[in-house]
Amino acid sequence: MSPDHPPGLDLDRLCGLLERERPGLVNGPLSGRLIEGGRSNLTYRVSDGTSRWVVRRPPLGHVLATAHDMKREHRVIDALHPTSVPVPRPLLLCEDEEVLGAPFYVMEFVDGTPYRTADQLAPLGPERTRGAVLDLVDTLVELHAVDPAAVGLADFGRPEGFLDRQLRRWGKQLDASRNRDLAGIDELQAALGRDLPRSPAPTVVHGDYRLDNVLIGEDDSIRAILDWEMSTLGDPLTDLGLLVMYSTPLGLPGSPVSTTAEAPGHPTPAELTERYAARSGRDVTGVAWYTAFAWFKLAVILEGIHYRYTLGRTVGPGFDLIGDLVPVFIEHGLTTLQGLQEG
Description:
Elements: H1 11-21, E1 31-34, E2 42-47, E3 52-57, H2 70-80, E4 90-94, H3 97-100, E5 104-108, H4 118-121, H5 125-145, H6 162-176, H7 185-194, E6 203-205, E7 214-216, E8 222-225, E9 232-234, H8 237-246, H9 269-280, H10 287-310, H11 319-342
Antiparallel strand pairs: 1-2, 2-3, 3-5, 4-5, 6-9, 7-8
């Protein structure tokens, strides 16, 4: 199949659907390309030669519907689009699997750059890099300021017991990937369970909020937040903890896990936390727990990737290095929690 007709995207059927549901939107034959970089769901750029759109669908093959829920993704960006939170404009949700073989949705194409590594950020220079990352915090504050009920998302999740469910969920994920001893990971999980914080009022939570999940325009502003597949209603500080984790230098040159923290001008985790606190008014004194939980969550994700690699189920460069990263993430999590307990 040619690059302009990627797997999972039947352009003729898509064109027919758009002509029926959105007359006048498409002006000519469609071409499409898979956008690289997505972790799970597939993202395509589609064009009629004049206009561009984005199509999101689950991975090819059998998937768990709850893990790749296009209706939920579409619902949250549809609800947030009228607010000040920057998201692409949704155009169409299709739950008919006859069209592309799975539910999918179409949204507007937004120009911008997802910065995934410190090397990619470096040409911006220290001042622009600092501004972009601080804007990331400010945009998170805007997201967490949205009243879920006011935008029709009052039933978008179950905030009660959110942290306990999250910890148990990732514990189950870990158990499903266990095929070697991982020193300290059970200790980290147990310590997190003992010290569950009291959550603030629930908000819309992105679930994977970091620099490479936003598009930054030429004016250095955030044009759109992407990849809403893990969004729900829950504890907003889980988003902050993840952002702090991704803003902590790993000190591992050549690591297959992308991080921008080493870029010149990148604000420190403390600066990001202080800015979030000042702009949101939330108490962030317990952010270390949320950061340690983020380290645990990423350790589990990486161990899952390593497990699939050992079974021969992953192909491509860098997968052979993932397993060596897991102990590093565990150690960061334990160190972060130790600092909380000593403080």
